[in-house]
Amino acid sequence: MRIAVIGAGALGLFYGARLQKSGNDVHFLLRRDFEAIGSNGLTVYSVDGDFRLPKVNAYQTPEEMGKADLVLVGLKTFANHRYQELIGPVVGEETIILTMQNGLGNEEALAELFDARRILGGVAFLRSNRGVPGVVYHLGEGRLILGEYRQGETALAEQIAPIFQAAGLECRVVPDLKRARWEKLVWNIPFNGLCALLQRPVDALLNLDSTRDLILEIMREVISAGNAQCLMKDIPISFAEKLVSFSLGLGPYRPSMLIDRIEGRQLEIESIFHKPLQAAVRAGVRMPRVETVAALLEATENG
Amino acid sequence: MRIAVIGAGALGLFYGARLQKSGNDVHFLLRRDFEAIGSNGLTVYSVDGDFRLPKVNAYQTPEEMGKADLVLVGLKTFANHRYQELIGPVVGEETIILTMQNGLGNEEALAELFDARRILGGVAFLRSNRGVPGVVYHLGEGRLILGEYRQGETALAEQIAPIFQAAGLECRVVPDLKRARWEKLVWNIPFNGLCALLQRPVDALLNLDSTRDLILEIMREVISAGNAQCLMKDIPISFAEKLVSFSLGLGPYRPSMLIDRIEGRQLEIESIFHKPLQAAVRAGVRMPRVETVAALLEATENG
Predict the structure, then answer these.
(1) Pairing assessment for the beta strands B42-46 and B51-53 based on DSSP bridges
(2) pLDDT band per the 50, 70, 90 thresholds, residue A303
(3) Chain A residues lying within 8 Å of B205, measured CB to CB
(4) Minimal CB count within 10 Å: which of A33, A123, B296, B300?
(5) How far apart are CA B206 and CA B203, in angstroms?
């Protein structure tokens, strides 16, 4: 399968590399890593076993890449206004677009530009970071939940899942992508927000009573707001406790928004905070603690 | 009148100096400023006119001070566990205790140790900072609202108010100290909390949409919680907008909690956040945004 990776950060590089390793024809749109990967290939240090791809199809513009059967979108969401410019050139009549980006609103924005029936969303449970140019660290997990933009549909996702499974990755198809997105937000909103705000890793926040309690309260707000979104099945409120227990095992993990902050990048406040807050308000639900964290994060971005 | 000032920070030094200037017999318990004031006296640079008190009664222990007719308590509230040790020695049968400290719980804690009928609270609207030892800056206001620990009583407060008025200070007696405390919290909770958390002055937070909206929402939470405390008269919800308009005139003012943070002192989280939160919960009200700010402040104090 001819695959284009648009947005090759830690996530895009990792999944693209695994898909190439298992025999797909993968093409990467690169910026920071273009020269390093062009001369030395792509190295993945992974909990599943290290490997190196000596020859990688690397591009600096999407126009050179040609049409793809599948586009993996790994862009930071604050670059979503560039969808047409970056993704348009690799999309043909039959191209499937799979966004693996954070938060809400990505499938919707793609559906405004491309064929809504060919848009998939992937919720990635992956711990990975970039190293020096040409190097990716895969620290844990890697499993993927796939769903279609159109609630209840699964045929196209069922067609794509085996490609990831053949690359040794756990990949499950669900009929309700929206529910999977909100479940992910139950983790992403408190941990990305509080870790970025306080500039501390996951375990530091779980080890303090005040922030652990706050994390649980925020999770419950997100679950309640999610359950007001016409999901096919409610997220149980006990999911919060379950996620906190799971997170205790993550140790000093730094969520992506903390890494963005450390590296001086813009934060994904729009897709991880504002879109969910807007969806909640639309459904008549408030998330006051989430609003507070969002306002504080915004303040740290301004001035 | 023989007055003891216990806790001579910017507030205690300012009010004590004005009371001495207008003819009272004032005695200061000092720590940081003891030597400077002993040798050079106390200098007040004030919007009401600068002045210097060349001779000041300065002490390092309360035992040397003798009994007072009136005790002004200006301690940081995290020192309240030392009330007996610091205030006990200057309190006789007839002594009136006036706490001008921040937040909630101060009168209550004093009433557990001393005669509840002789405890007053003063809500100070004062902008002042300490300079080098022996120097206080009075940047604005100075007015005082006086009330008694016992709701509805005013006789004793009416006795004390003229002493402040004679010192040229606006001083108003109210029958409901609790209401005055909650009104002050409507300002103190958002501005102390957010300025300390984000390390920015008042105008920086009012100039950003996200934080200005958050300030208003927090104010409304505090008003609702205050109105659940059996006040003699409700605080109108429109008080929030009024306070924000007023605060626009404060410019780059740094609330006390921001100064505490900058100077590496402990924050008054207990009296400004936890006591009000506990009072709200007792009355069946939640303040989710206030809870969030409190948890974040606590985290910044730990680790």
Answers:
(1) antiparallel
(2) low
(3) 299
(4) B300
(5) 5
| Distance of alpha carbon B230 from alpha carbon A221, whole angstroms | 30
Enumerate residue ranges in chain B where pLDDT < 50: none
Nearest to A292 among B214, B298, B302 (CB): B214
Sequence-ordered alpha helix ranges (H) in B167-266: 177-198, 202-206, 209-226, 239-248, 256-262
Q: Do A292 and B295 touch (CB under 8 A)?
A: no
Q: What is the pLDDT of residue B303?
A: 67
Residues of A with CB under 8 A from a CB of B: 194, 197-198, 200, 204-205, 208, 210-211, 213-214, 217-218, 221, 288-289, 291-296, 298-300, 302-303
Q: At a CB cut-off of 8 Å and minimum separation 6, what does A236 contact?
A: A223
| Eight-class DSSP state of B78 | G
Number of A/B CB contacts below 8 angstroms equals: 77
- A299 touches A273 (CB < 8 A): no
| Chain B residues whose beta carbon lies within 8 Å of the beta carbon of residue A200 | 299, 303
Query: What residues of B are in the A interface, CB distance below 8 Å?
Result: 194, 197-198, 200, 204-205, 208, 210-211, 213-214, 217, 221, 288-289, 291-296, 298-300, 302-303
Reported as half-sphere exposure (CB side, CA atoms, 13 A), residue A18 has a value of: 25
Q: Where are the alpha helices (DSSP H) in chain A?
A: 10-21, 34-40, 83-87, 106-113, 155-166, 177-198, 202-206, 209-226, 239-248, 256-262, 269, 275-282, 288-301
| CA-to-CA dists, residue A130 to A11, A127, A136, B29, B35, angstroms | 9, 11, 5, 58, 57
Count of CB atoms situated within 10 Å of the CB of A213: 12
Structure tokens at B26: 């004032």
For residues A153 and A118, the answer to whether their CB atoms sit within 8 Å is no
A173 vs A184: CA distance, rounded Å: 15
| Higher local confidence (pLDDT), A263 or B225 | B225
The 10s digit of each residue's pLDDT in A7-34 is 999 999 999 999 999 999 999 999 999 9
Are B292 and A295 within 8 A, CB to CB? no
User: Is B242 annotated as catalytic?
Assistant: no
Which of A52, A238, A23 is closest to A131 using CA atoms? A52
Domains of chain B: 2-175 (3.40.50.720), 178-299 (1.10.1040.10)
- Residue A298 is which amino acid? E
Cα separation, B87 vs B120, in Å, equals 14
Bridge partners of A126?
A141
Taking contacts as CB-CB distances below 8 angstroms, the residues of chain B near A210 are 294-295, 298-299, 302
Quick one: pLDDT at residue A102?
A: 93
Buried b (16+ CB within 10 A) or exposed e, B8-47: bbbbbbbbbbbbbbeebebbbbbeebbebbbeeebbbbbe
Q: Taking CB atoms and an 8 Å cutoff, what residues of chain B touch A291?
A: 214, 217, 289
**CA distances for A289 relative to B2, B217, B278, angstroms:** 49, 11, 18
